[in-house]
Fold:
Amino acid sequence: MKRGGAFGAFFLSSLIAGLAMASPVDARLGDALRARLAEAGEGATVVVEAGDYAGPLAISKAVRLVGRPGATLWGDEKTHVVTITAADVEISGFTIRGSGRDLGKDQAAIHTTGARTFIHGNRITDSLHGIYVRRANDCTIVNNIILGDGAVAEAVADPLSGGLKPGESELCDVESPQDRRGNGIHLWNSAGHVITGNTIMGTRDGIYFSFTDGTTVRDNTITKVRYGLHYMYSDENTFEGNLFSENAAGSALMYSKGIVLRGNRFVANRSHRAYGILFQSVDDTRVEENLIEGNTLGFYLENSNNVTVRGNRVVGNYIGLRVSDSTAGGRFHENVFFGNIHPVETSGANQANAWTVDGRGNYWEGALTLDLNRDGIADLPHREPDLFGGWRRSFPAVGLLSASPGEKLLRLIHSRIALPSLPGVTDTRPLITTRKTP
Amino acid sequence: MNAVSEVHMLPSVKGVVSAALRREWLSHRLNRFLYAHIALVLVIGALPLLTPGDGFSRGAAWWLLHGVLYAVSLSALLLGLSSAHAEAEEHVWIMGQPGGIGPWLTGKAAGLVMLTGGSTALIGGPALAMGGASRELAVAMSGAVGVAVVCALAGFALGFWVRDGVRGLIAAVAVWFAMLFGVDLLLLAVAGSPWVQAHPDAWIAVLMANPLDAFRITVLFSVERAAFSGLGAGALTNWWAANAVGWLGGLCLAWVAIGGVIAWLGLRRRTDDL
Structure:
C-alpha cells in the first residue's frame, strides 16, 4: 500500500513536472511569426508582442527581431531555438528557452553563423548552450541573462557541507552534472566580437573561447559555473571589468597570446584545485589591476612567457601565486600580496622572471618595511621563501602545515637568510604600502 | 569502634570530589593567574573589533585562532601548573587523608577544567556583543575552550611531576614550545622522507594528535572553506576535513583524560617517594 502510494505520488509529481516543462504555446503564434519573418525584407524590423511563440525559428536575412516584454520563444527541445545564418541580424528582448540537449550537435538557444549578429537584452533558460557563435565575425552580445540548469538547483559544492571529492574539479577529467550542460556563450573560430554586460550563471562554462581572436569582453558577471572563462587558441583578446566568482574551477586560459586582463575580479573560486586564473602556455599577455581574492589557488602560470603582471591585488587565497619553472620572462610588479596562506609557490629560485620592474617591486604582507628615504620603497630586499615547494605535488599532505606557527617561524628566518637551495622569489625593491603611488 | 563503623567514617568519593572542587574554586579566587588569564582572554576577545566592515565575523575567528595559539594556550598551561603547585605545602597532609588521591585529584581537575573552560569562553563575548555571531565564531570559541582546557590539564599534570616552581615554569614553557612549534618543525623535517611520503596517514595522524594543530586546521577549514592541496593526500585527510569539528572535540576530551592520568601518576609517584 505504501509502495503503491509512493509510486502514485512519484507518477503524479513527474506528470506535473512534465506539464510545467512542456511548452504552453499555441503553435499558430509561432507559425504566424515565421510567416512574418519570411515576408520581411532585408533590414526590416519585426516587433513581437508579448506571448508564447513556438519555435524553432530560422533567420536567413538581415532583420531586426525585437521582442516586447513578455515575448517568449519556445524551442522544440530537439534543435536550436533560434538559428541565424545571415549577416547583420539583431535579436533582442526575448525570453528564449527549450533548446535541444545534444552536446554532439552543439544545440543552443541562439546559434549564429551570421557576421555582425547583434544579440541583446534576452533572457535564456532551459537550454544547452546559451549563445553559440560559429565562424561568424564581429558579433555583439550585450546585456543578456543566461541561466543554466545549475543556476537554481546547484551551487558550487562547499568542501565542508558537501563532503570532499578530490579530483572532481580537475581539468575536464571527471564527468560531473556540469559536464553535461552547455556553455553560456560559446565562441568558435571567429573574431572581433564585443561581449558586454551579460550575466551567466549555472551553465557548464561561462564563456568558452576557441580559435577566437580580437574580442572585447567587458563588465560581465559569471558565477556558479565550472570555468568562468574556458579559453584556448585565441589571441589578442581583452577582458575588462568582469566578475568571475564562485566557480568550481575558476578561469582557465591556454595556448594563446596577446591577451589583456584588466580590472577583473576573480573571487571565491574555492573547490578542490580551483584557480582564480590559470595560464597554460599563454604568452605576451598583460594582467593588470585585477582583484584575485579568496581562491584555492589565486593565479597559476604554467609554461607561460613574457607575461606582465602589474598592479593586481592577490588577497586571501590559499596559494596566492604559483609560478612554474617553465614560466620565463614574466614581469611581476606593483602587485599586493596580502592575507594569502601561501603568497607564492615556486619550485626553484625563479630567476627567469623579474619581481622588480623600473625600480618598483610588490607589496608583501609581513615584509620588513624599512624606508629611510621615504620614497615608498623598502630599503631592504624581500625574500618570499616557499618552504613546501615541490612537496605539494609529491607529498600534498604537507599543505596541512600551511600557516602553522612552525612554518611561519621558518619563513621569518628564511626571509632574512637567503639559502640558495630553498625555492622562493626575491623582490629587490618591495613596496611598503598597498596604496597606489603615481 | 568496630570495622563497620570505621567504614562509615570514611568520606564518600562524591564528598571528596565535591570538597576538592570547592577548594579549587576558593584557591583560584586567590590566585593571580586566573585573573591574568581572564584579562588576557578578554583582550584577545576584543581584537576582532579591529576588523572593520563585512570582514568582522570572518575576521573574528582568525583573531581568536591566533590569540589562542600564541597566548591563551600558554596562559592556560601556566594556570594548570599553578593549580598543581597551589597545595604543595599541604601535599603530604592531603595525601595522608583516607579519601585517597583519586577522588581528590578528580575534584581538583574538574574545578580547573570548569574554571579554565568558563573563563576562556569569554573570548567570544566582545564579538558576540557587537553582533558578530556566526558559525565560524562558534567553532573558534568552542575550539578555544577545548584547547585551553587541554593546555590547563597539561600544566596540571606537569605540576605534579615537576614540583619545583622554577623548574616547573621552564618545563611548562618547553612543553608549550613543543606543542606550538616543535610538532610542526618535526613534521616539516621528516616530510621529505621516502617512508613518510609512502605513508602520509602516519604523518597526518601526528598532526591530528596535536591539539594546537587540530584547532588551527579546524578553523582554517571552517572559516576559509578552501580545499587545501593536502586534501588529495588520502582518506584520512579527507575524513579529517569533513569531520574537523568533531575530531577536535574528541581529541580535547582524550587529552583531558590523558592529562588526568598523567597527573595521577605524577601525584602517586610523589606519594611513593615520601
